[in-house]
Amino acid sequence: MPRWRVTSVTSMSCRARYLPASECRKIALTFAAFEEAAPARCGISMKRTALLLLALALHPMAQGAGDAEAGKAVFTRLCSGCHKIGPSARSAFGPPLNGIIGRQAGQQEGYVYTDAMKNSGLIWTREELRTYIKDPSEVVPGTRMKLWWMGNDEKMEDLLEYLDANK
C-alpha cells in the first residue's frame, strides 16, 4: 500500500479563503482521510490540520469569500439597469441597495413596494439574497423583480460581497 506524503499545504490554505465553504470542507475531509498515511510535520498532525481547516470553512467569515471589485462588475452588468448603489443612489425601477444586508425587505423609504414584498417579513441576509436572486418569485410570490440569474456561485459570492461592502 503506497504511503502519501504531504509536503506542503501552504498553497491550499492560502487559496482556501477564496473557495466556497463546501470546497473548504472537501479539503478538510481529504486531509482527514490521509491522517494515518501522512507523517506529522513540525509537531502538527494531519488531524489537527484537518480540524483547523474544517473550523475555518464553517466559520461565518468563510461565507464572505467573494471579491467586491469583481462584484461591482457583476452588479453593473446584471443589476444596475433597475437598481442603484452608492452615496448618491436613489430609487429607480427598483429600490437602492445601500445597506441591503440586514435590512427588512420592502421597507426602503421612498420606494413603492408590492404588497407581497412589504408583507414578506424577510430580513435580507446573504443566504436570503442568494436564494432570492436565483429565483425571486420562489422566495416572494408576487414580487415585481424578474431576473434570470446567469452567473455561477463565484459571481454570486462576488455580488454579495459588493452588496455587503456598500452599507
TrEMBL record:
Which parts of the sequence belong to the Cytochrome c domain?
66-167
Name this polypeptide is given? Cytochrome c2
Please name the taxonomic classification of the source.
Bacteria, Pseudomonadati, Pseudomonadota, Gammaproteobacteria, Pseudomonadales
InterPro entries per record: Cyt_c-like_dom, Cyt_c-like_dom_sf, Cyt_c_1A/1B
- Gene3D superfamilies assigned to the protein according to its UniProt record, in alphabetical order: Cytochrome c-like domain
- Determine if Electron transport is one of this entry's keywords: yes
A GO molecular function term, named singly, is: metal ion binding
Q: Which UniProt keywords apply?
A: Electron transport, Heme, Iron, Metal-binding, Transport
Tell me where on the tree of life, at the top rank, the source sits: Bacteria
Q: Supply the source organism for this entry.
A: Pseudomonas syringae pv. primulae
